[in-house]
Amino acid sequence: MADIFACDAFAGLYDIIIDWALEQLNDEILDAQIDGLSIAEAADQRMSKAYHYSDRYKNEYTTIKYAYLMMKSISLMELSSDIKSLATNYRKEYYLIDSYYRWFYYAYDQIEDNTKFSDIRQKIENIYANIYLQKITSKWNENFTNELMNTIDLPKQEDFYKHYIRGYDGKQRVIVIISDAFRYECQRNFLADWN
């Protein structure tokens, strides 16, 4: 596979590498490597402009990359029973799982003929819903109480105005986006783009 990976002269070689990566992901072989690179690193390399067909296969490799990153992150996830640690870990790293899931579907939907990706799409959906969400939601619900929420040093919705808006002198424009569906991971992306 390393010899094929090193060559980019023919479009068919891209298909061989994509098929190999999909096979590894479908079999959940997350430690598989090509030429010393993880599946995500290999996908990134094949998408670089140095490769002849990189634009043509960008969506396929992006789909593979985020499928791998989501699966790997979930496989390494260790959920704490402590709700404070759970909230902190979500804010630091677990939110990325939601991002990988969203970016996977975005790239998947851009593939013209995504038939050969249907098995991995189903696997991603099952892992996300039946492993990740089930684990994290049950841990959260198990440990969450109103009393406990008062002891956690996180900003509360009812204090939003007092902490973030009241300090403006009225000469500046303030835009507040309010949406229950505006998930934390989207907010992190928005904030990164804003800065």
Tell me about the largest β-sheet. 2 strands, antiparallel
* Count of helical stretches: 9
Rg calc: 21 Å
Give the total of domains. 1
Spatial strand arrangement across the major sheet: 1-2
Kindly estimate the percentage of residues that lie in beta strands according to DSSP: under 5%
Average pLDDT works out at 86
Helical content (DSSP H or I, runs of 4+): 55-70%
Please give the number of β-strands: 2
Taking the alpha carbons of the first and last residues, their distance comes to: 41 Å
The residue ranges in which pLDDT falls below 50 over 5 or more consecutive positions are: none
Shape: globular
Order of helices and strands: HHEEHHHHHHH
Q: How does the helix and strand content classify structurally?
A: mainly alpha
Describe the structure.
The protein is mainly α and 195 residues long. It has helices at residues 2-6, 11-26, 39-47, 58-76, 83-110, 118-143, 146-151, 160-165, 184-194, and strands at 33-34, 37-38. The protein has a two-stranded antiparallel ribbon. The longest helix is centred in the middle third of the chain and has 28 residues, at 83-110. The relative contact order is 0.10.
